[in-house]
Write a structure and sequence with these properties.
This protein has 255 residues and is of the alpha/beta class. Helix content is 35%, strand content 24%. The strands form three sheets. A six-stranded mixed beta sheet has the order 1-2-3-4-5-6, with helices on one face. Strands 7-8-9-10-13-14 form a six-stranded mixed beta sheet. A two-stranded antiparallel ribbon has the order 11-12. The termini are far apart. Bound molecules: zinc ion (ZN).
């Protein structure tokens, strides 16, 4: 049976998401920004929390873990490299490890850059990817603990997933990301189309997530740093892709 998801806002601009396996009844929260909205989501869906899958150690992704674990006795899965900074971890995972949520199976992808040990969870049967603060819709996370080259490699890893993979990210930043992306590739038709779609969604007070990887590849400048036309627009023709990526990231930081 296909996985079910339930997305909801947390804190100021974070997303919480529940992943449910109808076959076994297992339900995972991917990250836990704060406990109350997760509880409300469990109540509205009628699902029982069995697991928390953590992408990285930042407080706005882990702040709800202790309270949720105490109440639900759920298993906490976290990246090996960051487990010491995440509360109440039961199981650590690394590249290519398998994580099960009932009968649903995820492969762990190490996607460092935003933090040094950041991981993403890819569920191949359902083509779902939970990418935390590595990839956003039309954006990417700030490179805080890693290097631009490392972040670019992480984005390439995510870019290698199937085009119809649905991308669940950690924040609702899409509108601001689009404003910035238009300064890089103003004539990108896919970006213009995505902008119109996002304006409609925001006006209707609906989330802009998930998008598909194919949509992101067409419109997200951070996934397009190795295209000659993008390098040319930045005056960086012939430079390595990671340097083009670093320039786009740097301009975003200043925007
Ligand atoms: Zn973060």
């Amino acid at each position: 049976m296909p996985a079910q998801t339930h997305l909801f806002p947390c804190l100021k601009d974070n997303f919480g998401v529940l992943l449910h396996d109808p076959e076994s009844g297992a339900t995972a929260a991917v990250d836990a920004p704060e406990a109350a909205p997760v509880e409300a989501a469990l109540k509205s869906t009628g699902w029982r929390l069995t697991d928390i899958l953590v992408t990285h150690h930042h407080a706005d992704h882990t702040g709800g873990i202790a309270e949720l674990k105490q109440r639900h006795k759920c298993r906490v899965v976290a990246p090996l490299g960051e487990a010491a900074r995440i509360p109440l971890v039961d199981e650590t995972v690394r590249e290519n490890d398998n994580v099960r949520v009932g009968s649903l199976a995820a492969r762990v992808l190490e996607t460092p850059g935003h933090t040094a040990g950041h991981i993403s969870y890819f569920f191949p049967a359902d083509k779902l990817a939970f990418v935390g603060d590595t990839l956003f819709s039309i954006g990417c996370g700030r490179v805080i603990e890693g290097t631009p080259e490392m972040m670019w490699q992480s984005l390439l890893k995510l870019r290698g997933l199937p085009d119809d993979t649905r991308i669940y990210c950690g924040h609702e930043y899409t509108l601001a990301n689009i404003r910035f992306a238009k300064t890089i590739e103003p004539a990108n038709a896919a970006l213009v189309a995505r902008a119109q779609e996002v304006e409609r969604l925001v006006a209707a007070q609906r989330p802009t997530v998930p998008s598909t990887l194919g949509e992101e590849k067409a419109a997200n400048p951070f996934l397009r740093a190795d295209l000659p036309e993008v390098a040319k627009l930045l005056g960086l023709s012939g430079q390595p892709a990671w340097k083009v990526f670093a320039e786009i990231r740097e301009r975003k930081n200043r925007s």
